Amino acid sequence: MKEKKQLIIKISKLFIPYIVLLIIIGFKGKLIVSFALVFLHELMHYVTAKKLGFSGFGIEILPVGAVLKFKDLDEADPKEDLIISLSGPLFNLVLAAITYLLNLKLHSYYLDVLYMSNLSLGIFNLIPAFPLDGGRILRDILSFKTFYKRANKITVNISIGIGVIITVYFIILVLLGHRPVSIGIIGILIIATSYKEKERIVYLIMSDIVKKKYKFIKRGYIENKSMSIYCKKTLLDALSVVDKNKYNIFIVLNNEMKAINVVYEEELVEALKVYGNITIEEYLKNTDEMDKMDKLAKITMDEWNDWKECKKEF
């Protein structure tokens, strides 16, 4: 993670049309201040992530703000990711507190704008929904108590729920004659991002195991994690509880909680490619059949070689 790369700033295709739409409907005033603060918010994420040793950064400016992306993000453990995610909202809340205290003495309109903008941005980003910081923060906190994949699933469901509530609220306001464009975009963006995150987790499971291999080769060692799993569970069920920072060994138990076999994490990936999402019990039966076929093939080849040797002697 010592690789040095420049910060890449990417503007979403929807950003410019969104700004034009806001100008047409008469939204002015605090717009420039808000987006300047959003950019500083993401720069705080950037500085924090860089201090923790991550690289490959990019900031994408979206219609409702901006988001920091970097290629090593999936390698961050929950504690590192929590620190990075919290840095942006905390930066805005600290600025809000400072500008509020200054405004008590100076009574400045501009300080009041900065105070309200920072306070709104800080609180808004703490909403537990993707792609906001609050979504990552919730997932990181849940990850301390449960597996990462399960924490991600819970967070995605909460995020979709929040997106639906915001979208329904937007529809009600439209029916009442209001034009809350930003609220509608936020609701749709949260739902779309949440579903994208839901799909991403399946590929993340696979990439975790691939990245783990390179980390292991680089370090020369890796900590093991052993756990017992019910034979009726599927291959994806097993993969969903894989610890991305450890080498996972599964002791397969039957209905009587008796150990019937041992399965290693790389076996799960290969089995998923070959058989699809079958149960661990079915996988073990298939491997047993393959072993029997291999043994029979070996016996046949041995007998064939013996026959050829005998034929040569005669």
From TrEMBL:
Molecular function GO labels: metal ion binding; metallopeptidase activity
Keyword GTP-binding included in the entry's annotation: no
Cofactor(s) this protein requires: Zn(2+)
Span of domain Peptidase M50: 33-103, 108-164
GO biological process: proteolysis
Pfam family, one: Peptidase_M50
Keywords associated with the record: Hydrolase, Membrane, Metal-binding, Metalloprotease, Protease, Transmembrane, Transmembrane helix, Zinc
One GO term describing the cellular component: membrane
Record bears the keyword Phosphoprotein: no
UniProt membrane topology term: Multi-pass membrane protein
Top-level taxon of the source organism: Bacteria
Transmembrane domains' residue ranges: 15-40, 82-102, 154-175
Subcellular location(s) per record: Membrane
Similarity remark: Belongs to the peptidase M50B family.
Protein name: Metalloprotease
Origin species: Clostridium bovifaecis
The organism's taxonomic lineage, starting at the top: Bacteria, Bacillati, Bacillota, Clostridia, Eubacteriales
